[in-house]
Structures are given as C-alpha cells and as structure tokens.
Amino acid sequence: xxxxxxxxxxxxxxxxxxxxxxxxxxxxxxxxxxxxxxxxxxxxxxxxxxxxxxxxxxxxxxxxxxxxxxxxxxxxxxxxxxxxxxxxxxxxxxxxxxxxxxxxxxxxxxxxxxxxxxxxxxxxxxxxxxxxxxxxxxxxxxxxxxxxxxxxxxxxxxxxxxxxxxxxxxxxxxxxxxxxxxxxxxxxxxxxxxxxxxxxxxxxxxxxxxxxxxxxxxxxxxxxxxxxxxxxxxxxxxxxxxxxxxxxxxxxxxxxxxxxxxxxxxxxxxxxxxxxxxxxxxxxx
Length: 285
Description:
By secondary structure, the protein is of the alpha+beta class. It has six helices and seven strands. Strand 4 and strand 5 form a beta hairpin. The two termini are 31 Å apart.
C-alpha cells in the first residue's frame, strides 16, 4: 500500500514538472514571437526612413516654392502639396506605432481594406526595392470584421514579406478581397508568383519551428519557423481560417477567411450556448 502511494506521489510530481515545463515553453515561444514581431517593426522603420526623407524634401521644396511666388494660386498649390505630404507622414508614423504597440488584445469592428492599405503603405518601399508589382482587387466597400487590428497587421506583414522573399528576382503580387454575403465572411487572398512550396511540405508549414527557409534573408527576416504558426493561431482566435495553395515554380496563394461582425457575434452566441449547455449537463451528473 505504501509503495502504491509512493508511486502515485511520483506520478503527481512528474505531472507537475511536465506542466511547469510546458508553461515555460509557452512563455519562451510567446517571447520569441514578440521578439520576431518587434524585429519586423524595426526593419519596417528602417525601410520607411527613405520614404520620410522623400516626404521632407517634398515639404521643403513646396515651402520654398510658396515663398518665392506671391500669387495666391501658386501659394495654395504649394500649401496643398505640403498638407498632403504631412498627412502621408502622419499615416506612416501612426501605422508603425500601431504595429509596434504591445497592447492588450482588443476585438473591435475593423475595416479589412484599410488594414491592408496601411500595411502596404509600410511595405511600399520594400516592394519597390525588390521590384515587386502589386495588383489590388478590392470591392468599393466591405462590412467590418471583428478584429484586433494589431494582430491582423502582424499576419499581413508576415505573409506579404514571405511573398516578397519567394520572388528573389522580382515579380507580381496579387491582393484580392471578396465578400461572401450569404455566409457573412470576407476572403483575403495574397498570391505571389514565386518559387512555390513543395507539395510534401505543405501539410507542415503551419507547425511551430517548421520552416521551408534555410534561415533569415539579408534583411534578417524569416527562418524561425514561427511566423506561419503565429498567423494560424491569430486567425483561429478571430474565428477564421487560413488556407494555402502552392505549386513549385508557379507560386503560392494564402487565403484568410474571416467572419464579419455579424457572423462573429453569431459564432460567439453559439459558443456561449454550447458552453452553458455543457455546464448544465455536468451539473445534472
């Protein structure tokens, strides 16, 4: 009897050790993902430095032009150009700060088109640098999704940088948003025409620490095997689905399927009902 108690105690201790190790691994993974996100933000800040220089030169040149010309038409044109450049600078700054902010998770009605446009504003210089042409196929308007904008931006940055890396010699990137009105879902497709992913590797690309890359590229991005795993986790938290289609030599298409605010509320109510029903069943037993 004493021997059995001793064995049971050892099992309890071992179980506690396993749980503690799992907890530490989760903390380390979270810290690594946070570090990766901040590294990406740092890289974006570096790539937008040139953009800020262009904006400042625009402001300076039109300010000088406005000072040289005393007629109201020329001055108004100069002021309009200065205002447009300043607004662009403010938008770039705001988007970078939003991406860098380590805020508490908050789901709010969010416009997906605006999110994509903000991220593309940050990545515009990088896409131009690597000769990536971007085609957008967006409706004039779409219903909002219930989202943490910071997290969705993280997903978009990861997928867009992956697409850029797959086209080392330049290429075409296609962004397409469609609204499934019947099911109240939005689909965002990010398609590149790069190297593609081997069919045998596709089932594993969302696994943690699995990477199809040999390591970070010259910009320090990619290769940890955490990017796509984080993307899937974020999309699933948003009650959505992430899918991938790829063919070697033909390119890759990632599709994010996200519920609108209406659909998200319905899912939330159903989950609450299922949880309440499960608790009632437990209480009966």
